[in-house]
Task: structure prediction
Amino acid sequence: MTAGLWEHWVLPGIWITIQLTLYSAALATVVAFGVGIARTHRLRTVRFFAGFYTEIFRGTSSLVLMFWIFFVLPQLAGWALVPMWAAVLALGLSYGAYGAEIVRGALNAVTPAQREAGVALSFTPWQRMRLILLPQAVPEMIPPFSNLLIELLKGTALVSLLGIGDVSFAAYLVRLATTESAEIYSITLVIYFVIAFLLTRGMRALERKAKAGIGQRPEPGVGIMRRLGLRQSADELTHAVKQNGGAS
Result:
C-alpha cells in the first residue's frame, strides 16, 4: 500500500471512525442513564414508556434504523440529516437502549438499606439518586459499559453503507485501487484492535477512579502470563523441583 493511499484514505478513515465512536458513545450514555433511571422510577407510567423505548430499540436492527433515519425521516419531517449525524443518531439510540439495561440493573443491585438510609435522612428522590445510588452503581456499570463501547466501535463499520469514509470504507477503496485484499484488511484488523485496546485501558482507568471515589480498593493488576495460567504453572513446577531436590 502506497504512502499516498495511506495518507489520503486510511488516516482520515481512522479519524472518522474515532469521531463516530465518541459521538455515538456520548449520545448512548445520555440515553442509557436517562432511560435506565426512568426504568427504576416509582411511577408505573414512566417505567412503561422507558421499557417501551428499550424494547423497541433493542429489537430493531441498527443498520435498518440508520437507513430509516437517512432515507425515510426526510420524507416525513421535511428535513434531512447528513450521513455522519444520521449514523450517530442510529448508533446512539440503539446502543443506548442496551446501556439502559446496564444502568437499571446496577441501580437495582444497590442494597435496600442504602435507599432506606436516604429516606431516613429526608433526602429527596433526586438526592438519593445523586448522592447514594449512582456513586455506588457507577463502578458496577463500567465493565459492561466497556464491552458495549467495544461493540459500538465495531458497529461503526455499518456506516460505510451510507458512503461515510470510515476506516472500513477506506479499506474497501484501497482494495479496489490496489487489489491487495490480504494486506489492507489485515491492517484494518490491527487498526480496530489498537483502538479497542486503548478504549479498554481508558475504561479500566475510569473504573479504578470510580471505585476509589467511594472508598473501594482497586483490584490488583494481573499480568498476561498469570491470566494464561503460565505463571502459575511455572511457579508450581519450580516448587516441585525444590521439593524433589530437598528430598534427595
Remarks:
- DSSP finds ten helices and no strands in the chain.
- Confidence is low (pLDDT under 50) at residues 222-234.
- Residues 112 and 164 are 48 Å apart (CA to CA).
- The two ends are 62 Å apart (CA to CA).
